[in-house]
Every structure is written in C-alpha cells, then in structure tokens.
Model the fold of this input.
Amino acid sequence: MAIRYASWIAGGVFVAALVLLFLHLSANDMEFSRYNTGWNGTSAFFSDLGRDRTIEVFDPGVLDKQPGNATLLILAPHRSPTEREIAGYKAFLAGGHTIILADDFGAGNEILAGIGSRVTITPVNISSLDRQYADPYLIIAYRTQETGPFVMPSEITLNGAALLEGGSPLVLTSVMSWADRNANNRLNAGEEMGTLPVMVQESIGPGRLVVLSDPSIFVNTMYLQPENANNRALIDNLTTQDSFLLIDQMNSRTADAKGLSGILHVVRNTVIIEILIFCLLILGIAWAWRKKAV
Done:
C-alpha cells in the first residue's frame, strides 16, 4: 500500500514538473506578445479578456459579418496591411462599427491612409513636466470634454506617446508638454510647450475611428501597476462594451510567437489539428483502459 501511495506522489510530482516546463517553454520575451509574461508583454491583458464576447481575427473576411455595434482593436501593427485587410477594415467601418488603433512608431499610418482617415501619427515622442516619476516620457494626459465611444477616466499615464495630428481630441497632455523632436528629453529652441493630442477620434462614414498614440498602456508593467489604475479602467471600458470585441491578430505584435509558443499558437487556431489531438487522447485513454482490464 505504501509503495502504491509513493507511486501516486511520484506521478503527481512528475506531472507538476511537466506543467511547469510546458508553461516555461510556451512563454517568450517578444515585446507586446500575448505569450510574454514579462514586463513588456501583454499576457495580463489577454488573460483578462471575456472569452464569451471576444473574437480573435485571423482573416479579414470576418470583419464585414459582425452584427451590432462591435469594436475592433488593432494593437501595435508591425507591417504594411494587405489589400484584403484594408478592405476588411473599410467594410467594418461601413457596418457602423468602431476601430481602435493603438500605435506609435509602427505601421499605423499605412492603415490610417488605407481606410481614408485624416489622422496621422507623427513619429516624435512627447515629453512633459507633468509626468509620472522622473522620466519625461512617462507623461500624464487628461480627458477632454469630447464625447467618445466609451467611458473615459479623468487622466491616464502614457510611456513614450507619439504626436497625433487630425481628428477630434479625446485625451490631451497638459500645457507643460512638448514634442521632443531631437529626443534629448529637454525643451530646446524650436520646441514649444502646449497641449498635445494623444487620443483622437474621427467619423468615417457610419463608423468611428479612435487612435491612441501609445500601445504600451497594454503591456504588463503599465497594465498591472496599482498607480496606473486609470489605464486599466480605460482598457476595461473599451473592452467590456455590450457588443463584441474583436482583436486583430493578422497584423499585430501581440500575435508574435516563437519556439513552443508558436506551435501552440498554430494548434489553438487550427481546428483540424485540435480534432486530431483530441482523437489521439481518446485513443490513448482507450488503450490504457484496455490494458487495465487485461
């Protein structure tokens, strides 16, 4: 009997070790990756999403088939969009839905131009004396009186936000801010202080576009820290609407995967592979049961 219990304990330890190894190998350190549990990943944000009302988009063909007032989040796009993707974004807006684009120095401008937006992202960091900690790029920005598609907190903290042009401002910096065009963290000749837009909105046909010039509010360190509770409130408000939330996984650094995480990414999103694995598990259980019966 003691030997039997020892075998069960040894088996439990072995399974626990396999689980820990699996979790370690399925993570990565790629910035913005949903599989990155480190400070610059988005694992916490993705783990908090309500699965019953969240749709991950891998094919632009699904964008023109959404009922109601849905929201599409495009977070940190990393390449030029394809013609099919642009067509999907346009169809989504034509359906009266909302697109939220969060980007600073990625391919956001190509998406904006493709869908006919007048908003542009200028690849210049904003510095401010109204900031979090001692870093001039960790700026505090404030809600305007403009009515947006979701409830806005009074202020949010941004890290290295870019300068936006065009659209109607939803969030502005304080007057103690400037576009740091020479990237030296100091106010120099030719750089003027003033309120600068970091989140804007624009109507495109019956749809609505919201652009946020700092995707890093979604990374773990900005999302989880208690002092950034307003950031989390903003994200909660834009992801917990009554309608469906679609997450772009076609052109987003959140989908970046390598090693085992890449394999798992393919498995999770390929129905045939999932069915094959399920069948293999059933066969394995049946074989083990038969051996026990014999």
Remarks:
- The first helix runs from residue 2 to 26.
- The longest strand covers residues 120-128.
